[in-house]
Amino acid sequence: MTALLIGNNRAAEMAGGPDGSTPDERRRAARGAQRLLWWARDGDVLLLPEAPDDAFADHVTGLTGTRRATLTVVTAALPPTGTLPDATVAAVRAALAGRTVDRVLPVYADTGVTDLVRRLGAERALPGWAFHAQGGSALVNSKAAFRAVAAGTGTPVAAGAVAGTPDAAGAAAAELLAAGHSAVLKVAFHSGGLGNEVLTTDPAVRPLGAHRAVVLPGPDAAREHTARHWSGLSSGGRHPVVVERYHPESVPVYAEFEIGDAGVVLSGHGEMLMDPMLDGETVPAALPPDLLDRLVGDGRRLCEAYHALGYRGTLSADAIVTPAGELLFTEANGRLTGSSHLHSVLAARLVGEPLRSRRVFLEKGAWRVPSFGAALDALERAGLAFDPATRTGVVLVGDRVPVDGTVVPCVIAPDRPAAHAVRRSLPALAAEPASAPAS
Amino acid sequence: MTALLIGNNRAAEMAGGPDGSTPDERRRAARGAQRLLWWARDGDVLLLPEAPDDAFADHVTGLTGTRRATLTVVTAALPPTGTLPDATVAAVRAALAGRTVDRVLPVYADTGVTDLVRRLGAERALPGWAFHAQGGSALVNSKAAFRAVAAGTGTPVAAGAVAGTPDAAGAAAAELLAAGHSAVLKVAFHSGGLGNEVLTTDPAVRPLGAHRAVVLPGPDAAREHTARHWSGLSSGGRHPVVVERYHPESVPVYAEFEIGDAGVVLSGHGEMLMDPMLDGETVPAALPPDLLDRLVGDGRRLCEAYHALGYRGTLSADAIVTPAGELLFTEANGRLTGSSHLHSVLAARLVGEPLRSRRVFLEKGAWRVPSFGAALDALERAGLAFDPATRTGVVLVGDRVPVDGTVVPCVIAPDRPAAHAVRRSLPALAAEPASAPAS
User: Fold this and answer.
1) Predicted complex ipTM
2) B179 and B62, same structural domain?
3) Which of A81, A168, A308 sits opposite B164 (nearest CB)?
4) Share of chain A above pLDDT 70, in %
5) Are B7 and B340 in contact (CB under 8 A)?
6) Is residue A9 within 8 Å of residue A32, measured between CB atoms?
7) Cys-Cys link to A267, which of A256, B80, B339, B403 (CB 3.0-4.6 A)?
8) Contact (CB<8Å) A164/B236
């Protein structure tokens, strides 16, 4: 049983188009892609833009019980679009050393991935290969397509429109402002709220899940703004733009599913922390039972529509809970998300089934540390390292030390207050001198 | 029971983008839109770019049994995109004269239609209104989305790819030519094969269902051609391009369905006549039983995927039968098609259930006539006018006399040879002087 894990988290459809990233952003993405290590099992091959450092790899595999020495990491650039060079395919083939690929797990199953899989003769190892090979991933990640599918399946969404022209987008935004609401404009393909901007007449409105709020005098200005920024909003005219009523101070939540041939299985749900951009999350989402039922039930129905199309893989149905208590779905993401490791690995494998429902996972912000090893030592000394006996403690899910001197901690605790208390204690820990050299 | 029939057959998503039509093309489209008269029942309101002439309207309603005097025709420009002016909405409202709209039947349910429907407060009268209001029609008409859905549902398609970049399209076309095949490049949104072109190294290859065949020396030239024409192929970079193996001398067939809340119902199937562009069709498709079963069965499965998304309305699953006897699906069209009247009206209502399966419908080419009335007279004199007693004869399904001096005849006969014999006899009939003045 050999899996090929592909860390292509810079796929163009995740970022709205051609590669506009800076070297620093690419480096951050490369470190983020290393999270795939959490899924690795004995004998797997990882294709990553940058190899994980030993300390991180040891930490992850130590917790998952994977024998690190059995893993092979192939490093290669994984550009946002296009097919991979022969040398990369050859390197993967060499790493496989004649073994059959039984499973392919990419971050994003675009045609770059399906082409690689085809060249490896591993089509059957990627669920939904045929769908993805014909560009299907766009259908399950476009925010524009999402609104149609949501409307078509009776999934509640914010009032709004999918606009193919600046006129239509401007009219929709103006209508919302004229009705006394704020509007959010969404680029069809983007992630983490980076493609969203809020238009509002109210300077007090905070742009949660959007990169900015633009304060405008009124509807006409919204029309002008939309026309002026149309090229960026539509990714150079390539995609329609979503215009929705923006509900200030809503709580973003999601339910994540695995869509397989046999059907749709809930992986878990969570609640995003926005400050004002995405800053982490807590799992599970703490919602009243009726809202939680609808989050999971409506999310599942959405998944069933994507299942009918032929999509296979992870799907996150994202929603907000408005201050009025309305549950409104905002987008769907058919890919490994920034939450997938929490459900598929930390909850399912590190904590495991009997205790999972009695644990809270808090992954919030970055923790500045002298080194990855120093962070682990500090956790050990404080008695906060993840303890397989109690199934509580801190796990370091990401290693960004070479980029910005931080690691990404996830606190696993019996409840939210305990998790937050541990999280708050971390900065002080790292201030202590590391007792061991950085590994 | 009042229906609103909307003749918007110039919707941008049917033609690949903004309005590039000439006045002559617009006039032709306007005459084509008059075919909606076939669906009209007592009391209905028709919104058309051009009112039908009396002779045509009398012919149609005489055959369908609709009392023509109960119909109201509102004429207004129906542009390819955008919302309709207030004056048009007011005119429709005036024509309704307070009656509730129970059913809306557009040619194409784009957001121009859903906006009109909303302003009339008739959302519940348009099946799938919510889906269409969020741009859903694009999902069921894009040739690119089709390939993903077909692959995802196990529907057989020609080898090929959905290409988001000139490089990807060029590589796919070059690969096909290098393998000794021809390729067809398809614009994502277009109709009647007008957005398709064949690339081939063989000058003998005829472009059936494509506007031209480009003879090239080899794969590299295919790459260059694709790059050079990328802007047109991608509608100015707005949509991906489909690149498929082209199977010369294949027979185009289709199965058409009605997708309703309750499920998917077959309307009928047919066989297109290409000469080399679409020149008409015969109903039913004359295929061996196993191929026909697959056409209908695979077409239905495709419909079920679109049904799951929330699409409601007519859906035509188009396919080809290759000379090798392979059935390969080529596109899906979620709209009233050029065939819909044959199934929904001529077969279902003029011929009716008991005899329908024992009749052949042949609609092939245009018939040059002095006037619509003269054509009817000629048919009467020759004993070829449709006879409700025998459920055979010629029906004039379209009136293009003011545009190009032709009508569109459909021959209904017991079998194909009889239908073709009648069709061949028509030009000679029209050569006779008309006995009555043009109505």
Assistant:
1) 0.90
2) no
3) A81
4) 96
5) no
6) yes
7) A256
8) no
Q: Two tokens at A198?
A: 């809020």
Best A113, A119, A124, A134 member to test B by mutation, with max B CBs in 10 Å, is A134
The identity of residue B402, as a single letter, is P
Closest by Cα among B230, B191, B237 to B210: B191
Residue A304 CB contacts under 8 Å (≥ 6 apart), including other chains: A153, A264, B308
Pair of tokens at residue B408: 């569109």
CA distance, residue A365 to nearest chain B CA (Å):
35
B226 and B122 within one domain? no
CB A109 within 8 A of CB A118: no
* Partner A contacted by B262 (CB < 8 A): no
Site from B108, B134, B234 to mutate, A interface, most A CB atoms within 10 angstroms: B134
Min Cα separation B149/chain A (Å): 5
Name the DSSP class of A284.
Answer: S
CA–CA gap between residue A247 and residue A236 (Å, rounded): 27
- Tokens describing residue A304: 């069933």
Assess if residue A268 is contained within a domain.
no
Residue with tokens 């004993």: B383
pLDDT in tens, chain B (439 residues): 899 999 999 888 776 555 567 888 899 999 999 999 999 999 999 999 999 999 999 999 999 999 999 999 999 999 888 889 999 999 999 999 999 999 999 999 999 999 999 999 999 999 999 999 999 999 999 999 999 999 999 999 999 999 988 999 999 999 999 999 999 999 878 776 778 899 999 999 998 888 889 999 999 999 999 999 998 888 888 888 999 999 999 999 999 999 999 999 999 999 999 776 778 999 999 999 999 999 999 999 999 999 999 999 999 999 999 999 999 999 999 999 999 999 999 999 999 998 999 999 999 999 999 999 999 999 999 999 999 999 999 999 999 999 999 999 999 999 999 999 999 999 999 765 544 444 4
Domain range for A197 is: 159-246
**Between chains, do B237 and A240 touch, taking CB under 8 Å as contact?**
no
Residue A348 lies in a domain: no
d(CA A276, CA A285): 18
Number of domains into which chain A is organized: 3
Is residue B291 included in any domain, yes or no?
no
**How many Å apart are CA A354 and CA A410, to the nearest integer?**
20
What burial class does residue A323 get, using C-beta atoms within 10 Å of its C-beta: 0-12 exposed, 13-18 middle, 19+ buried?
exposed
Which residue, among B233, B309, B331, would best test binding to A if mutated, counting the most A CBs under 10 Å from its CB? B309
B207: which 2 tokens?
A: 């472009």
**Cα distances (Å, whole numbers) of residue B299 to A314, B254, B317, B381:** 28, 8, 5, 42
For residue A331, with 0-12 CB atoms within 10 Å meaning exposed, 13-18 middle and 19 or more buried, which class applies?
buried
Question: What are the φ/ψ torsions at residue A25 (nearest 5 degrees)?
Answer: -65, -40
A134 and A46 part of one domain: yes
- In the numeric block, the tokens 């002439």 are attached to B53
Check CB contact under 8 Å for A83 and B145.
Answer: no
Q: Do A152 and B309 touch (CB under 8 A)?
A: yes
Contact, B20 vs B62, CB < 8 A?
Answer: no
Inter-CA distances, A141 with A213, A323, B410, Å: 24, 27, 45
* Record: contact B151-A133, CB cut-off 8 A: yes
